[in-house]
Structure formats: C-alpha cells, structure tokens
Amino acid sequence: MSKKKNTKQDAQPLFTGSEWNFELIETVGQEIAKIADEFGLDTYPNQIEVICSEQMLDAYASVGMPLMYNHWSYGKHFLSNQANYQRGRMGLAYEIVINSNPCISYLMEENSMTMQTLVIAHACYGHNSFFKGNYLFREWTDADSIIDYLLFAKNYIAKCEEMHGVDAVEEVLDACHALQSQGVNRYKRPKPLSANEEKHRQKDREEYIQRTINDIWTTIPQKFRKKEEHEEHFPKDPEENLLYFIEKHAPLLETWQRELIRIVRKMGQYFYPQKQTKVMNEGWATFWHYTLMTELHDRGKITDGSMLEFLQSHTNVVYQPEFDDQRYSGINPYTLGFNIFMDIKRICLDPTDEDREWFPDIAGQDWVKVLDYAMRNFKDESFILQYLSPKVMRDMRFFTIRDDDTNPYLEVSAIHNDEGYRQLRQNLAAQYNLGNLEPNIQVYNVDVRGDRSITLRHYMHERCPLDEQSTNEILGHIKNLWGFDVKLESFDGEETIATYPPSAKDGDNKAA
Amino acid sequence: MSNIIIDRRRNSKGKSTVNRERFMRRYRNHIRKAVNDAVNSRSITDTDSGEEISINKKNLSEPFFHHGQGGKREQTHPGNKEFITGDRFKRPKGGGGGGGAGDGDASDSGEGMDDFVFQIDRDEFLEFLFDDLELPNMVRKELKDSTEFSWRRGGFTNVGSPDRINVIRSLRGAHARRIALSGKDRKEIRTLKRELREMEVSPDETDKDRAAEIQLRIKELNEKIKRLPFIDDFDLKFNNMIKVPIPSSKAVMFCVMDVSGSMTRDIKDMAKRFFFLLYMFLQRNYKQVDVVFIRHHAEAKECDEHDFFYARETGGTVVSSALTLTRDIMQDRYNPKDYNIYVAQASDGDNWEADSPKCSKVISEDLMPLLSYYAYVEITDRHHQNLWHEYKKLEKDHPDYFAMAHIRSPADIYPVFRELFEKREVTA
C-alpha cells in the first residue's frame, strides 16, 4: 500500500485514536490544505460546521440548505427520513456541503477522526474546488450571495404567510414546486442572485410587472384588430421557462404571488448545475478524497489503521451493484465519476496503445492539468462523451438495453466490445442529458383575444409520453397560477399525439 | 488559508418542527381518519402511547413532469455477464424498462404506492382524537366561590418581597430623596462658591482667612451631602399584585351506564369504550369538569371511575332509577347556577315496559330545565324498543339540548361520539 517508504519514517501520524476534537480537525485541515495546494486545487475558504444527527436530519429535509423557507413537503421528507433513520433502515450521509462562499460543510459529530478527515478531503477540497471551478457553477450560480438570498426568501415568504395566510402561500408554492424543473433557463445566463438588490428592486418590480401585464391584456379597439388577419402567437416563440412566463404574464396573480414564483424559480436555477454534474461532482470529490487520503498515508500522517478504516468506507461509497442485483437502482454516480477520473489519471501516467488511439491529446500528459481541465469545462453528458474510455466500459461491463414499445421484446443494442464502445458511450452520455430525461414542455400559445387559456406543448423525445396522472395533477396547479384554462398537447414533430386534460377537446364547447 | 471551524451542535435542533407542523396541518383529515381507525382497534385503556399513522402515498404526491411508459428508450446498465449485441428477450412485466433506473433524481413519489408511515406522539394523538369537539351549550357561570384567580399588576407598594422590587421606581425615589435632602446644603455651597469667585476676581481685597474658612465649609458641606445614603429602605418600591377572580366555565358530566342483564358483554364493552372516550375527552379538554359515574340495573348506584369501568354486578332494568338518582345528586351537589350540567346515557334500550314513560317524565320535567345537554346512545343491533321511541319525542321537544344516536358496532363508537360532541355554530 505504501510506496514511498522513504518519507514515512520521519513523520508522526496526526492522530492515532478514533476520537476527534477541534484542534485535530484544525491540524488535519491544514495538512490537507497543504497537500491540496501542491496539487493545485483552487477552493473557496472553508467553513466547517460540526452538527449532530438530528441537525443532519433537519438539513436533509430542507434540501441540504442551512436556511430554507417553511413548507409542508420539507416536513414530509423530515418525517420519512426520521422514520427510516430511527428504524436503522437508512444511514446518514457523513457530510453535506453547500455551494457558497465561504463553502459550508457539515460534519457529523458521530464520525470518527478518520471519517472527519475523509469528509474534509471530500467536501472541503473535492466539492469545494468543483463548485469554484466548474463552468456551470461559475456561470449559473453565485456562491457569494446564496446564503443572503435564502435569508431574504425565508423572510419574504414568512411575511407573505403573515399577510395572506399559510394556505394561500402554500397553494402558490405547491404549484411552483411542481414546475421547478420547468422554471429554469437552459441557455440564457441569468443574473447572479443578490439578496440586497432583490430587496431594493422588489418594489420597483412590483409596479413594473403590473404595468406590463396590463399591456398584454388591454383590449385592442376593433379597427386595429382587423389588420391581424393571420393568427398571431403569443408568445412569438415558445417559452421553455414556464415559471418565468407565468410570473411575467399570468393575468390575475398578485405581486406577492409573482415574487414567490420568482423565489422558487431562482432556487431551481441554483440547483440546476448540481443536477447536471452529479457524476462529475461526486466523482471529482471521491477522486480527491482518495488521492488526498493516500497521500496523507504515504507521508505517514495517518496510521495504517485509519487507512484501512478509510478504505472500507471508500469501498462502500464506490460500490456498484450489478444490474441483476437486488440492490441495483441505477448507476452509482460516485463509482462512474471516480472510475473515469482515475482512468484519466492512468491514461496520463501510463497509457496503453488503445489509450493513445482513443485519447491522443491526453495520453502521457501532466495528469493534474488534464484533470483540472476536465473538471472545469464539462457537465455529465459531455464529460462522459469526452472521457469515458473503453477500459472503464469493460471494467464496469456496461451494456445497453433498447426498449422500443413497437417491439414486443427488449434488445441488447450495445455491449462493451470494439463495435459497441462508441455507441455505448453515446447512450450513457444521453442518459445524463437532462434534455432527454425531463420532458421538454414549453409555453406554446396564449389565447390573448379569447378565453385567455394557455396552451403548453410537450415536444416528445423518442415518442415518450407523459405520465398521465401526474401531468393532470400538475395542470391543476398551473391552472391555479394562470387563473384560466390550461391545455397541454404532446407533439411528436408532426402532429399532436395526446392532449391533457383528456377532456380538453370537448371542454372548448363548454367554455363558451 | 485556514479553515473556520464552528461547533453548531448547540444550535437548535428543531428546524424541521415548523415544517412537520405544516405537514400535519395539511394532512389533518388523513391523520384524523387514521386516528379514528386506531381508536377502534385499541384497548380501551391504552391512552399512553402515540400512534403510527400511515397515509397512502398517492395522496401525498408532489407531482413533477416526467415520462410515462412507452416510446423508445435506451438504458445502459453495469454488470453484463453473458449478453451480446442483438440478444432479445421478453419485456418483463411491471415495466422494468420504463425508465427511472439511472436517474438519481427520482423522488420518493416516483416509487411504488407504499404507505407513507410516520409516528405521532400521545399528545398529538389525543389532539386529533378530540379535535373540534366541545361540550355544547356551555355558558360561563357566575362563580361565587371561584377557585380560579389571576394575578394582575396593581400599582406599587412600599413593602414586598425582593423579587418584586421595581428598580426604576426605587431609584427614582432615591434620587428624589437625595435631591430633597441635600437642597439646603447645595444652595449654601453655591453661594459660598460665588463668594469665592468674586474674591478671585479682585485678589487685592482678599481676606485670606475668610477664603480658607469658605473652602473648609464647602468641603464640610460636600461631605455631608456624600453621607446621604444612595438608597434607603424608604426608597424601595415593589410591584403590587392583586388577585382577580375570573369567571370560569365549570361543568359536571353525569355518565349513566346500563349494566343490566340484557346488556351482553359486547354491548357493555362498547358502552365502556364510549364512556372512556368521553372521559378522556373531558380530562384533556376541560380542567373544571366533574364527572359523576352512575351505573344502574334495576337500581342505580353512584360509583367511582374504577367500579364504573370494571365492576361486574348486574340485574334487571329500571332506567328511571338512574335518572332519579341523577336528579337527586344534582339537587344535592350541583347547583345549575354554578354548573353546566351534562348527562350522557348509554343503554341497549331494553327497559322495563312501564318504566319508559316514567323516564321520559323525569327527564322532561326534572332534568331538562337544568341541563345544558343530554346525550343518549343506544347500543343494540336489534329493533328499537319503547325507550328509544319515548326519547324520540324528547328530542323533538328539546332540539339542541337533547341528542340521541345509535351504535351498532364498535366502528360506530367514535363517529357517534364525534357527532354528539361536534363543535357547532353558536345558536344560543
């Protein structure tokens, strides 16, 4: 295990027992910081907070954030986590880390000193440097102001509850939560959040919004109307951000309701990069905790015992049950990410002929630089497409099943062999493309002159239909926000395949 | 760059409490239903435990747009063993290929429709059990010998216990006293000082002795002022508290249970469950409610709680015996001026034929004028007998004050209980 015996003799381990204390955490933190610096990891300053298991459950319940507005669904998550935890069905994560500046990491008090070391390496240096370096996070989130913004949101929502009642607020939030994934700008870069500015501008916005909305809904005198012979769409181009559209254009909402939509939208936007970089983010953090821990051990800073304890939990983290295993529930992002990053390092240090053929650019290069580049400039989909090597595919024994509902059978469409590598890699990458995973639903038309109903269009991907029950439920939520009828049609590129709610067609007649 | 390390363990742990309450509030009806089911299956004396509540997950869904089954999709999995490209096999039932696997985002609403199970504690259980119930027609009675007082602030006094000291008043008093007592001296100091200053202006005429004398006098006076105590016993002021009697709503509940031979074990058990609910309800929601237990067969007897629920003696049935006993106790101990009086009666309705009109008479003439509410439950799965028909007339004559209900099986107990004690719009 220890290759560099030479340095080991003259170093004292930082700790030998399993008990932790604050000085030890401090020393270990400094030691890791030193090594991380040698590897060129660029991080936000760290703020390490020690919490107990109940607090961890609390943090779990509110999407990991230290501050969050109140909502029943967080209570539901809390109850279910609590029940699972108390029955021993679920272990708690060793840490939670928040994309903020300074980067806040929670350590559990139950952890042993080895685990604390692991967590510091994983969260405070792995995730932290990823948050700071990856282009999605850099462009889409503002680590400096998230905590302030959360505070603003929490207070604002509490104020709304006071003024308009919990039920009214809950109704809006429920609807927004259902649409959170559709409340994201995928291509435009949003302005970074700033609580201060939000507060200042909120008043102006309230007035402005009401004015512009009325513009759209003003009745246009008869003589002008005649000019518009052809039907004009509003919006002109379909709008992908449903929440944004509703916030700006729903005719009947009050300003505080628009503000609530905005808050949920901002939160959705904040979490959007995390959804797209699960494999990379976890893989990166796992790669670095592994590298840093090994380095600590090589330098004699941690004992063989600690190293064993670490390796055991590391093995659990990167365990990938196979597809026919009872425990199988999809690909473990830790494993996949870790394997790819480790493999990139291998390709740099010790390339085979196959690697030279597949990765001529990075074979034999400085691994630290190559890894840094990979971390900064990709998201899961493009990362896999770029870096998944035949060796990893072979090691993990990947294969693709094609499920086409026009065939009565399932088919293995690619496996880890020469013919299959590229296909397999594409398939796996597509699997992490949120654009394929989440239904593509856009605002298609608003009947501005008529009954003010809104029509959403679901652009189908590979003929995949929407789940009927949840869709109808969500349409109810949208109707609450929009205030008038809501229709949704599934469009496969040529024609409308299905409409929701199912009665939408005859609803037209009744509406009059 | 060193790390900031913060110990947060002492921070509040209850961050989720509000969210938990929100959840309970939202699913009140579901939880109430679960509590309802639970109460029928519990042992009647089991009130100390909480309850496991399970709600169908379908009702709790937080929907989000996602794909249903169908279409074409490719799913990549790890751990291939013997598959090669082109292998075909039958689509497994239950739509294993329907996606979900591989996307770590699937929330728990995406999983199967298991029940969502969580624990509520005893207090919450009881709260849901007796939520929105009340004793009807309760009026605040004027209380001569009220035992309930509240303490109110009532000015200040010069004596009192140290914990009631009013610091501001005391110091203000002391300050005033010091000003008052030192006034003469300070006035003298001022004149002396002025004299001194005049001397300094014209040093030639200065009488050195006089100056020294003045200095001395000033010093003397200053010391005298200093000797005044900063605070004196005399200055201390105390907050005065006075007792104010508050009118409270006292009530008494007469629990009248039939234990005659015609009551089978099952019926008795149901009656007991009913009274037990009533008893728990009263204990929990009203501090000032007396309960009088009366059991009767051919003759009636007042007994204590334990005997009421557990004694086994039995006999024939004369319902009026219990009613007259109720009347006597009422006249004896519970003045309707002071008390809201309630009667809850449970029987199988099997009364001695000639007795029923008598019951009706006792109730309408002697009891109803004094009562706030009379609730009768008949526990039987047979036809109603004369007692029920007699009581029906009473119900007509005394709407809002006389209520009756029929329990057929244990499952009816709690609904009937709720129906009888449902919070109503104020009519009176």
TrEMBL record, chain A:
It comes from the Bacteria. Residues 439-492 form the SpoVR-like C-terminal domain. Residues 19-435 form the SpoVR protein-like N-terminal domain. Coiled coil: none annotated. This is SpoVR family protein. It comes from Parendozoicomonas callyspongiae.
Automatic annotation (TrEMBL), chain B:
Pfam families: DUF444 (PF04285). This is UPF0229 protein M3P05_00205. Residues 71-89 have a biased composition (Basic and acidic residues). InterPro entries: UPF0229. Belongs to the UPF0229 family. It comes from the Bacteria. PANTHER family: UPF0229 PROTEIN YEAH. It comes from Parendozoicomonas callyspongiae.
